[in-house]
Design a protein that fits this description.
The complex is a heterodimer. By secondary structure, chain A is mainly alpha-helical. Chain A has helices spanning 18-37, 40-65, 73-89, 94-113, 121-141, 143-146, 168-189, 192-202, 204-209, 214-240, 250-263, 268-288, 302-317, 321-334, 341-345; strands spanning 152-153, 158-159, 162-163, 242-243. Chain A has one domain (36-356): ABC transporter involved in vitamin B12 uptake, BtuC (Orthogonal Bundle). In chain A, strand 2 and strand 3 form a beta hairpin. Chain B has two domains: 34-63 and 73-87 and 178-278, P-loop containing nucleotide triphosphate hydrolases (Rossmann fold); 97-175, no CATH class. Chain B has helices at 50-57, 83-86, 103-110, 119-123, 127-146, 162-175, 192-209, 220-226, 244-249, 251-260, 266-272; strands at 12-21, 24-34, 39-43, 65-70, 73-74, 88-90, 180-184, 212-216, 229-234, 237-242. The chains are: A mainly alpha, B alpha/beta. The structure holds adenosine-5'-triphosphate and magnesium ion.
């Protein structure tokens, strides 16, 4: 289970075991082959999951690792989507418009991050909620730039002569961005930056006394989180091909929050599992909708209510989310015949050092 | 600097320090100097303002009045996150560790004030980041060895017994490579043996590492064992200052301790009175 380590650098490796590296490689190969084997519908669905996963990783860094709840992240998705689409329509090549969309959104993250520096918990949630509504409002009113209520058609981009069409083109693009974003997040988490974010989440005062500049790191967390979400937004635009202000409202923000809570706060894998769940839930609802009793299926607002309900249930009964369940399951399997050993291991192990005179 | 040499006759000095919370005068007109390399203890009954003084030094609170100087620098208005970088580290009265992280992770956070690699290179984990991380790890391991924490290295703080956590907090403070260490009740919650062990650590820290210590402590045996000088505080003001024996025999101090305890525990209060402890 635990191997002997001989060098400090071993603790800095991206994958803890060579075997998990092999598993990730296998998973990647399978994902690369999917468009060749599955129908367009599934390829589209998977792209959607990847896009949600990118946004999920972005929000996870802010909420799961820095402890700052945002109910306005849909706005960053929207800013990224509009920025990319507008730049594309102005003739900017996609290889530039995509990173530019990320940077513009990161800047928007700084703009919301700085005034909310002293807020946390409920106050921050409300402030970001307000921010989200303001962005939707601005998108609606600033019609010379965004097309207002009429929406904004997203040009089809091309990279190195390759036209990126939905669903296959967007699938590979989203997969590539997701892999990069996950690597970025893993780098952050094994760096002083990641430690500082987690320290702020767990104990602000203590973190500050260890030399962590709270204002700087919270702003950086907002910027990185928003930037990543902006990238997801740009891809979302390519996926839906037509942007409208109301796509980026509160419901989407709540979906994003649900991703990180269901996945498990403080887990990158959790963000991806959560995205899979949240992106596919509407499909499940659509399938069972007609079979539900008492006309529940025809009730307006069924989907948002269900998201809310699931969020509440997860917070109440499995705060560690899907990732936490998974860890418990793994431990149980490993110790199957002897799973009481865990209780044994938790005993106090404190022993006196032998330097007492 | 602004105050001139006469105001800074100590390595660390506090001048006319005051802290008011609304109407509460938690600290009022407190001045003291700490010499380099000494262990300076602050004693006093509950609510005397001891922790408040520490919070002002760590800049968690901004003093209502007065000034703080350390190593020739005015630190009264410095940003709180810069204190660690200046060489002032602290432990907290109610352990403030990162409970969901391993001991090692906690110590590495203590190294934060020494991390200089730019954030952008951390995003791509450049070789410079890796080298710096290995170096932080090496320093943290030195502290682990110094305090004999090897066997707990990878355990979560939440799973460690209270006595060990106290030592981990000390370790995390040492990881910042401090010149001045503030210890807020290092022995509270420890049993007799653990307290004796803590006394050894404190001696090692001053003797071997040459770190100056300001300690808030209730256990007079520990105070007497390690302190060079003691300051007694009551209701925010200084009652007495001197050697441990001088302060403990000061009639004002004895009165403050006996008078300050609530009625039902007057028996044990007498026992806890510093005058009774040899
Ligand atoms: N943030 C605050 N707001 C209001 N009052 C405070 C605050 N911090 C401390 N006080 C008050 O200041 C006084 C001194 O508190 P302090 O924590 O410094 O005492 P102490 O000497 O450390 O006591 P103890 O031995 O119990 O730790 C107390 O009356 C306390 O209630
Ligand atoms: Mg105190």
């Amino acid at each position: 289970m635990s191997q002997l380590k001989t060098e400090y650098a071993q603790d800095l490796a991206l994958a803890r075991k060579p075997s998990s590296l092999a598993w990730y490689a296998l998973l990647l190969v399978i994902l690369l082959l999917i468009p060749q084997t599955l129908s367009e519908f599934y390829v589209g669905e998977m792209s959607f999951v990847f896009i949600y996963a990118i946004a999920g990783v972005g929000l996870m860094l802010l909420t799961g690792y820095t402890g700052l709840v945002s109910l306005g992240h849909a706005a960053f998705l929207g800013i990224g989507a509009y920025a990319n689409a507008i730049l594309l329509s102005e003739g900017v090549p996609f290889a530039l418009s995509l990173p530019a969309a990320g940077l513009i959104t990161a800047f928007a993250g700084v703009v919301i991050g700085i005034p909310t520096l002293r807020m946390s918990g409920l106050y921050l949630a409300i402030a970001t909620l307000a921010f989200g509504s303001i962005v939707v409002l601005v998108t609606e009113k600033w019609s010379s730039l965004t097309g207002g209520f009429d929406g904004f058609p997203v040009p089809t981009p091309s990279v190195l002569g390759l036209v990126i069409t939905a669903p296959t083109g967007v699938y590979y693009l989203a997969l590539g961005v997701l892999v990069l974003v996950v690597l970025l997040a893993m780098n952050i988490l094994r760096s002083p930056l990641g430690r500082a974010l987690v320290a702020i989440r767990d104990r602000e005062i203590s973190a500050q006394s260890m030399g962590i500049n709270l204002a700087l790191y919270k702003t950086v967390a907002f910027a990185i989180s928003a930037g990543i979400t902006g990238l997801a937004g740009a891809l979302f635009g390519l996926y839906v091909r037509h942007l409208a202000p109301d796509s980026f409202g509160v419901l989407l923000s709540i979906q994003l929050v649900t991703i990180v809570f269901i996945g498990g706060l403080g887990s990158l894998q959790g963000a991806i599992f959560g995205a899979l769940f949240v992106a596919q839930l509407p499909q499940v609802i659509a399938i069972v909708r007609d079979d539900l009793p008492f006309g529940i299926g025809r009730m307006p607002g069924l989907e948002p209510s269900l998201f809310g309900l699931i969020l509440v249930l997860v917070i109440m009964f499995e705060p560690a989310g899907i990732h936490g369940r998974w860890l418990k399951l793994k431990r149980w399997c490993r110790e199957f015949p002897l799973h009481k050993r865990a209780a044994f291991r938790r005993q106090k192990t404190y022993a006196k050092t032998d330097r007492l005179r | 600097m602004s105050g001139g040499a006469d105001r800074m006759n100590g390595y660390f000095s506090a001048r006319d320090l005051a802290m008011h919370f609304g109407g509460i005068r938690a600290v009022e007109g407190v001045s003291f100097d700490v010499r380099q390399g000494e262990v300076f203890s602050i004693i006093g009954p509950n609510g005397a303002g001891k922790t408040t003084i520490f919070n002002m030094i760590s800049r968690i609170y901004t003093p209502s009045a007065g000034s703080l100087h350390f190593a020739g620098q005015d630190i009264t208005n410095i940003a709180p996150h810069k204190i660690a970088g200046l060489g002032i580290a602290r432990t907290f009265q109610n352990i403030e560790l990162f409970a969901n992280a391993s001991l090692l992770q906690n110590l590495l956070i203590g190294r934060h004030c020494h991390s200089t690699v730019p954030i952008l290179s951390q995003l791509v984990f450049l070789p410079s980041v890796r080298r710096a991380e290995v170096e932080h790890r090496r320093r943290a391991e030195e502290v682990i060895e110094f305090l004999g924490l090897q066997r707990y290295r990878d355990q979560l703080i939440a799973n460690l017994p209270y006595g060990v956590r106290k030592v981990v907090e000390l370790a995390r403070a040492l990881c910042t490579e401090p010149k001045l260490l503030l210890l807020d009740e290092p022995s509270s919650g420890l049993n007799v043996e653990e307290t004796e062990e803590m006394a050894f650590w404190i001696e090692d820290i001053t003797k071997d590492l040459g770190i100056t210590i300001i300690m808030v402590e209730h256990d007079m045996k520990l105070v007497t064992a390690v302190s060079d000088r003691v300051m007694a505080l009551n209701q925010g003001s200084i009652l007495a200052m001197g050697t441990s024996a001088e302060v403990q025999s000061d009639p004002e101090v004895i009165r403050a301790y006996i008078g300050g305890e609530p009625e039902p525990t007057s028996d044990s209060a007498a026992g806890a009175a510093p005058g009774d402890v040899p």
